[in-house]
Enoyl-[acyl-carrier-protein] reductase, mitochondrial (Daucus carota subsp. sativus), 740 residues
Amino acid sequence: MAYYFCRFLNSKPPHKSSSLLRSLNHSVRSFSAPAMSPPATAIVYHQEGPPDSVTKMVELPPVEIKQNDVCVKMLAAPINPSDINRIQGVYPVKPQMPAVGGFEGVGEVHSIGSAVKGLSPGDLVIPCPPSFGTWQTYVVKEQSVWHKVDNRTPVGYAATVFVNPLTALKMLEDFVDLKQGDAIVQNGATSMVGQCIMQLARIRGIRSINIIRDRAGSDAAREKLKSLGADEVYTESQLEVKNVKSLLGHIPEPALGLNCVGGNAASLVIKFLRRGGTMVTYGGMSKKPITVSTSSFIFKELSLRGFYLQNFMTSSRAEECKSSIDYLLGLMREGKLTYDMEFAPLDDFHLALDKSLGKLGSQPKQVIKF
Amino acid sequence: MAYYFCRFLNSKPPHKSSSLLRSLNHSVRSFSAPAMSPPATAIVYHQEGPPDSVTKMVELPPVEIKQNDVCVKMLAAPINPSDINRIQGVYPVKPQMPAVGGFEGVGEVHSIGSAVKGLSPGDLVIPCPPSFGTWQTYVVKEQSVWHKVDNRTPVGYAATVFVNPLTALKMLEDFVDLKQGDAIVQNGATSMVGQCIMQLARIRGIRSINIIRDRAGSDAAREKLKSLGADEVYTESQLEVKNVKSLLGHIPEPALGLNCVGGNAASLVIKFLRRGGTMVTYGGMSKKPITVSTSSFIFKELSLRGFYLQNFMTSSRAEECKSSIDYLLGLMREGKLTYDMEFAPLDDFHLALDKSLGKLGSQPKQVIKF
């Protein structure tokens, strides 16, 4: 964060002689490392508002690389719905303005400060936990921000591993003690998190019931999700039956429900849950609230909870977070966890943004490639 | 349970000579104990339906007191809303028909089976956990059903300690780790559970915010609740403000909310809760569902759960249950936990039932005195 302010508030480079002096006082490695980052091209917004009108591509001047800093040449960063919401001003945690967009991504170490150990130019790194400002060609942040990942990881997956796949993994792990043979139910199943959930469930021997919207192409969507490992896929209208549990067949009543839609789609998740089950809400795509009967709480003993990724940004969970990321990247390298994405060069950012905003119909996840 | 069926299905007393033989084979104490209970007067229903039409007062024949049985002369038993709902057939757990009404109560040991130890005639006992059929003058059940309580306990409190005060205590203890100085918020605050909650909270140094209905007499109700220890009392209409938290003053944001109403009154509880707070639903007096926004789960990180007293009926929690009951009865004997009740002789059962059904306006808890 402080970095961007420095870029904006102090556009003159720091005093050359002092920076040269600092370099001379350090080791050969630090001496050979540049004390300043290259200039960067960035997607910046000066105020919250409609993302397609408030974001601009700008050139930012070089910034100093302090002794604990790492300068990373960004390789790829996605446009997530949460990035869009953050620019719109929906979230309670706000960056200071002006701000660079983006929250997760992957890059290659370009140069390091004199005190940095364990990272070398060419290493593949992700900010872990992520932080504001990945939509730019060079990012300078303290070493502690960067998590080195296996260089063989495809950059598209490394760029997108945190916000969606980690949400899927943590929701499967942190709320209900699921065992092989158990079942889960989710709505919004075609979303990237939804696709990760069904694949991670399948790897654990957990059955998944997946609810999707009624729309043209829902048959193709069903086949696609089944090929990823979904056990059952229903459109909302297919669940307009007296007792949804009559559809379960050999699948046990689910212990965990995942809701990113709200409204009727949330009610359907609740109907599937077994006594004592838990529904975790992590999104509200329909913009409708969740309505629950009293008897769901008293007789069915349901728990309704929420998942907020921000809670994994605390230092106390940093190691857990990194080991989860490594696990997910391993699955991705083995081809066991996949999803669609489309790369867009930075120059085409606004086209990719329009696609992410849904202006051009249903599109795969847009990932900026720098 | 088995006992009632025996009364109904086998109205002939068991074979006299075998029972005499059994008595002769045991100690002096068992020899002196009667092998048969007295006949009983009971409130019985043969089918579920409107309580005022399906319940009848009937005479039941004596039943055998087996070696582990205790025959208890009932002294008092309340008419709880849950008793009414059970007769109406609302609950998933149903007694077999015909059934004797009532679920909790207190009595005095009348006679004991030959193998019973630790209970003597004259002891004050409650069924703990409670079980179907306390609306009768004599009850015969196994010793393990009966929990001996201090003989100095007023019978009205001993008769009513389980269903409402224990619900209040367990909701305060089992969901959120409340500390002195913390706060809770509840709706339905004039209910018996509500009154217990505010008193138990006060004893622990926990502040209570109490929401009541708008109705004639709400000022008097407020004063009454404040005299019991309520910190703040609001009618629902007083909470039609932009930000209910502006009313908190020196009271911290509550960590625990208790909901027995649903609808708008539940939404008000949710509005008061602090980030990460929990709302526990234990009733739905308005018959309206609970509506929750997505952001309550994600950004406010609320948990919504339910309380079902039936879960305390399991043998694994029997000791916890008895120690909680003893704690509550101790507070009652010390005058620290009080509530209003009205005693009605068994002959006036149907008048007391009408009062409990709300046919005669707001009335105190009706307790049958045998």
The domain at 2-160+340-369 of chain A is CATH 3.90.180.10 (Quinone Oxidoreductase; Chain A, domain 1). The radius of gyration of chain A is 23 Å. Residues 1-30 of chain A have pLDDT under 50 and may be disordered.
